[in-house]
Structures are given as structure tokens and as C-alpha cells.
Model the fold of this input.
Amino acid sequence: DFKANLGWRLPLRIYGTFFTVWAFLFYGPANEKPLIHTAVIFGVHAVFFALYALKYRLATIGYISTTALAISVVYLFNHFKVDIWFEVLAVLSTLYYFAGFAMRNSESLKPWRTMFTISSLTLGSIISLTALSTQREYSGWYIAVIGMLFIIEMYSQKQGGLELGAQLLFPAAVYLILADFKTAETVYTLIGISITWLALDTIFALTFKEKRPLEISVKVIGATTALMASLILAGENDPDKAAICFGIYTFFFALY
Done:
């Protein structure tokens, strides 16, 4: 029982909480070498708090474990100078999500599903923002997968607000994928993003029956972005490019 013998266990938990917070704040942002030491520290935290959460059946403690494991992974690959931390964390985010998704039919496991889902989507969002800000090559495909997790959760939980994750991550993915193909000109980016926003809006309008708080905003932003791209095209002295791009828009809006 987690609440048994609090007289002598509570002080130990207070000390343990203090030193855990200190470890995260001090070692988390540290870059002291060898980095493998930091990876081991957070790996031990991940294992310990996973067992602690299971022992006392407290899913909230699992957040510490999932966070520590992600930090451990970053330092582990940085130590060996293997630049695949983003890809590994994207896979870890996906594993977190489907670990929770597998519990969807069990009411007793609902807190654990919530913990895994929040850990997944939070980790995925953080690494996606990092990849976007650093223009990481080939990260767009992974960001699209993380965006898909938001869509799955949106339909699974019937929560229209989760559309925000998809509407932010998929345009970011489009931008980075275009950059990979060396076609990230402003006009191409605006076309890709506007079509992404409006295409998602169409899919959700046809298949998602619950309330969507962002529905009107997405339509306005998508249409405004398409208008901006059209004005840029009209002002450029490149008839071939304009013909192709307006042809793409014509085909899309005919379907829309």
C-alpha cells in the first residue's frame, strides 16, 4: 500500500523526490563528458521509476520513467557520436503511443493509457519542433508519422481539439520534405502547406462527426495561404511555373 507506514516512509520519499528533481535539473541539460555517464543515470531512473510505478500501480509515476528514458537515449547516441537520436526518439514516441492504445478497451488500465499517450504526443511534439528549428534532413517523414498519431487519438477519443497537433505537424512535415528535395521555395511551400491544411479539413469534415473547434480557423488560414501563393505566382515572370502550380490548385479545388 502506497500510503502505509507514512510516518517513516514519507521523509524518504521527500528526499527521493528532491534528489530526483535535482538530477533532472542538473544532469538533464548538462553536456559533461563522458556522456555515457549521464545516459546511465537516466537509464537507471527510467528502470527504477517504471518498477516503482508498477509496484504501487501509480501511472502518474510512469511520466518520470518515460521522460528519463528519452533523455537517456539522447545522451547514449550522442556519446557514441551516432546522429540518429531524432529517429530513435520518433520510434520511441510511436511505441509509447501504441503501448497505450493497446489498453484502450480496459477501464482499469485507463490511467496507464493516458500516461503513455501524453508521453508519446508530448515527446513527438518536442522532437518535431526541434527538427523543424534545426532543419534536420529527412525528418519530415517521421514528423508526418507523429502527426498521424494525433489523428488516430483524435478519432479514438473523439476529441476535436487534437486536430491542432495534426494541423501543425503535417505542414511542418511538408516543408521539411520539400527542403529535402531542394524545392522549398516560398511559393512551393505555401502551396504545399495550404493544400495540406485544406485537405485535412476536408477529410475531417467528411469523417469526423464530433465538434471541431478549429474548423473555421483552418479553412480561413488554408484559404489565406492559398491566396498568398497565388499572388506570388501572379507576380512572377515564369509562365511555366505558374501554369503548373495553378493547374495543381485547379485540380485540388475541383475535388475540394
